[in-house]
Amino acid sequence: MCAVKGCVMDIGKEEDTMAFFQRCYENLQRTFFDSRQRPLLHGKRIDVDLKSKIGGCFEIFWHITGFSEEDLGSVPLPFKPCVNSLSTERCDGNCINKFKWKEMPSKERRYICLYRASFCGLIPEIVRKANENAPDVKYWEKTKGHKTRIYLRYQFETVDYLVVFEVKSEIRVFFVTAFPLFFERAKMQSDKDYFKYNENNKNQLSHYESQGLLLKLVR
Predict the structure, then answer these.
(1) Strands 147-156 and 101-103, sheet pairing
(2) What is the pTM of this model?
(3) What confidence tens digit (pLDDT) does each residue in 101-125 have?
(4) 156 burial via Cβ count (<10 Å: 0-12, 13-18, 19+)
(5) Are 60 and 174 within 8 A, CB to CB?
(6) Among 2, 7, 1, which residue's Cα sits nearest to residue 163?
(7) What are the extents of the domains in the chain?
(8) What is the per-residue pLDDT across 165-210, written as a single tens digit (0 to 9) for each?
(9) Where are the beta strands (DSSP E) in the chain?
């Protein structure tokens, strides 16, 4: 097991970009896609969709290492949103120029990103830290309709990374996606959801405590 920040990979100065993606993929395949190595999340099994491959890599890999059209919006970004790293120095601005992509079976294009790829090795380690209730991992849940999702947000120095799961049963969750947070609106939304979840939990706890006190008085 590596230290969490040590799981962030940087592209070599002379390394081919697609060779770097392959290296990131092989690392994630070894540490997370392999069910024998994949950690549980608070005792729940994590399922990952590994049914289809694109260009020799599982589809989910291109999902977490690339942007969608919706992510980037209709107006080109005025600057690269990633922070200083070797992957940033080697970045060709694909999030702005949109000239390299992988097409998903749904025909959706994922615009591949060196910066997003460099972080994917964090995923299993963030799960392990969440299991230990580490202070640098924020946990919250959000329900929309009949679906409940679990969010794990890891923040340390310049790293701000979000991992998302969907609850399938009391013993099973499904891995949805993971990505670095660098857009301010995404950071603000995550803060809002986290504080709302914790406020609701505090209110519920106060309610249960008051009910317990009432039962004691009745007895």
Answers:
(1) unpaired
(2) 0.85
(3) 688 888 888 888 888 898 999 999 9
(4) middle
(5) no
(6) 7
(7) 5-182
(8) 999 999 999 999 999 988 788 899 999 999 999 998 876 655 444 4
(9) 45-47, 53-54, 57-58, 66-67, 101-103, 109-112, 137-144, 147-156, 159-169, 172-180
Q: Which two tokens stand for residue 74?
A: 């209709």
Tokens linked to 100: 């390299």
Tokens 């990131």, residue? 24
Burial class (CB in 10 A: 0-12, 13-18, 19+), 29: middle
Note whether 91 and 114 are within 8 A (CB).
Answer: yes
**The two three-digit tokens of residue 90, written as one number:** 């080697």
Q: Is 23 left (phi over 0), alpha (psi -120 to 50) or beta?
A: alpha
Spatial CA neighbour of 113 closest among 12, 15, 6, 20: 20
**What residue type is assigned to position 31 of the chain?**
T
Which pLDDT tens digit goes with each residue over 65-105? 988 877 776 556 666 667 656 566 667 765 666 677 688 88
Query: Would strands 109-112 and 101-103 be described as parallel, antiparallel, or unpaired?
Result: antiparallel
pLDDT at 71: 75
Cβ atoms of 82 and 37 closer than 8 Å: no
Tokens of 167: 């609850």
